[in-house]
Structures are given as C-alpha cells and as structure tokens.
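Minutes, structural biology subgroup

Action item carried over from last meeting: produce the structure token record for Nucleotide modification associated domain-containing protein (Geomonas silvestris). EB confirmed the sequence was re-checked against the source entry. Recorded below for completeness.
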Amino acid sequence: MAKKAIQKRSLYAVTYLNRSVKQPEKLEQTSPVGEFHASLSRREFPYDGGDDPSFFSASKFAGPITWGVCRPDVRGRLNPGDIVAFFSEGRGEYKFVAALEAECVISQTDIWAETTKEDAGRDKTPTIFRKYLNLLIRKTDQGWEHYEPALHPKEWHDDWVRRICKKNELARNYRDSVIAQAAHSLSVCPPPLPIAENYIVFSKKTSIVSRDPLTVATYSQGDSAEVWKETKQEAAIYRLIFRDTKRKLMTSTKPKRHRHFRRELDDGENFLAEMKKLVETAEENKQGIVAGAPTGTTYA
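Output recorded by EB:
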C-alpha cells in the first residue's frame, strides 16, 4: 500500500445520499450484492446506494472501510491521519454515521495487482477489496473494464476514468477522445493515463461507526438549509465538527448540494475520543441497535 507523507492533519465533513438505486440485472438474492440491496430496501442502515463508503462490504468481508467512487475531489486530497466525518441524507433526515481516520491510500489498479512469491507473508489487504462493492474497474484477460458491482449498468458513472485518475494531469494532457480510447488498457503510448492513489483505506483500529446513526438535522422543502436539532448530543456533534463557523451540510438548494467542509485538525486523537463519547451517549439514550447494522469494525 502506498502512503503519502504525513502532513498537517485535516478534518472533513462529507454528506452522501442514502437512496434506493436500480439493482443489477440477474441479481442473485444470496450473493453479497443481493444481501446489500435487501438490507438497503429494509432501511437497516443508511448505506450509500453504491456502498461508498463501504460500510456494508467492510462488515461482510471483515475488512476496513474504504472510499473509492464518490467525491474524487476530496479523496484526492486525503492524507494518512486525516479524518472524515460522514453524514447520510435521505428522506429529509441527516444522520451522523461515522468518523473515520485515513490509514493509507492506494489506486484501484493496486487492488488487482498480481502477487508474487516475494509477496509471501506480506500484507495482502488490497486483494480483499476485489470483493467490495465500491469499485470502478476490474481486470480482465484483455485488459480493464468498467465495473460497478452494486449498481445496474444504467446507473454506472460515465466519468469513471476521471474518477480514478489525477484530475489536474488528466485535464492538462488528455482530450476526451483520447481518454475514451485509453479506457480499455488504461494506458496510451506515450504516456500512460495518470492513475491516482485515491482509493482511501480507513483505519479499523480508530473507526467510530454508529450502530444506530443519530438524526442530527432535518430538511423540509422551502428551507434554505438543513435545520439542526438543538438537543445536547446533536448540538455537541455540530460544535465538535464545525466549531463556530455556522456552516451547514447543505450549501445549495437549487440543485440540492452538499459541498464538503474542511478545517485543520489540531488534535485528532482528542477529536476521536470526544466523538466516541458523544456517539456512545447517543446510542445509550436511544436504547436500541438497528437489526442488521454493520459489525466487525471498531464501533463506539
């Protein structure tokens, strides 16, 4: 796994959509994809429709949570030690789902790299991600192909090549026609497409994932932004993340957008410790755990 040099740590707040999506064709209900869609339809946990971040896959395959499809602008900036606070938005409710610390970054081609005898005994973690649902490519005998296992092909991302490449280099050196021609091999001669190390692997040790995510804010048509609850836990979560910025998750209503929030993080360990206490208290107050909620990760 490639690691970027550790820089000053940052905290990001990111919102993803918890919504129903069109299922893949010929879906086997007992397959991991079938199980995911069954859980999604039962609203057991506020998953992203493509399982990105990979709360379902991490639980199913006992691996770390990853992030590799959505928000390439944010993923491309993350460094080891940075923390992402994830919120879900669905049916007019905003839920605090997790606070995750980036452990390392890899490329989606790294996931499919061949292992050799010299690799014996080394960390094989990247290969487990081949089973995950938040992928954009897979390797074939002929090269590479676009592949998003959780979604019906009609919902696959048209800009998938851009999502796995270094944005600035791609925009500067490649035309759309060249990108389309290079998609099968992911290379043109010369030079190869600038594949980015922007598949984020979060730490299992420090992950805080709520078993029963707390609704922290609501939105009704006509509101200029989401309205945060003023009860103790919700207000404390807001202050811990946003401090005194008065920032909201929603940054535009036409269309509805959730631009990420970023600030420098002075003490990541204290932030995670405080967030863990808040989530634990919130779950104790709710006195219940959602059936089917993810397991196998370090939860609050």
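Discussion: Residues 169 and 253 are 32 Å apart (CA to CA).
Next step: EB to file the record with the rest of the batch.
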